[in-house]
């Protein structure tokens, strides 16, 4: 399993496909074997995993695995203890109640890099910083949570996923670093990757997609044959055809063949 850490800058899309208006992952990483594991919104910054393991993203984002993702968030207004307590208990969003978060008020980080463009805020309104950790992966979840408790997000930086700490790694925006998964307990229980299978069946010999086809066999290993002599419905007499069960209120069919009424 290969894992590369990227410090995603602001205004960069979490995709490898080229985009005319914005930078993407392909502008910072040139490795066709890598895929994203844990997206960040275009207007968010910080830690992103790039990996060749297809199941890592689901493992990280599944709340059952308790892989907390930590963010440093600049919010509009002087955040109150009541608002932090709401975040800790869970916030009711349009898609349901969030799981309890870890949330504390912090000072502006000393390691903080300048953002280009800088954050726009109102001079008459103070700002404050929160460190918040969640183990879910809903769309724009942290931004929606802070807004729901009355403190809209101005800037959001993901600093940790599990024990992987962007600040300890010392990565500046746009920089990458490959890590050794065996040195981190977060990756010890990642399930083995299974080969990709498409949704549709592939019945040709040597096909790689689709669900595996299990043929029925006899005790001696020979393939079972379908019983012969079974009549098709068009071969049956009227008395042999299956009857549809009704509750007795179905009207009799008065139509002639091809759906035309008798004249």
From TrEMBL:
Enzyme nomenclature, EC number: 5.4.99.-
Domain of life: Bacteria
Region described as Disordered: spans on this chain: 195-263
Key words of the record: Isomerase
Pfam family, one: PseudoU_synth_2
InterPro entries, per database record: PsdUridine_s_RsuA/RluB/E/F_cat, PsdUridine_synth_cat_dom_sf, PsdUridine_synth_RsuA/RluA, PsdUridine_synth_RsuA/RluB/E/F, PsdUridine_synth_RsuA/RluB_CS, RsuA_PseudoU_synthase, TruA/RsuA/RluB/E/F_N
CDD domains per record: PseudoU_synth_RluE (cd02566)
Feature: compositional bias, Polar residues: 247-256
Domain Pseudouridine synthase RsuA/RluA-like: start-end pairs: 3-148
Protein name stated in the entry: Pseudouridine synthase
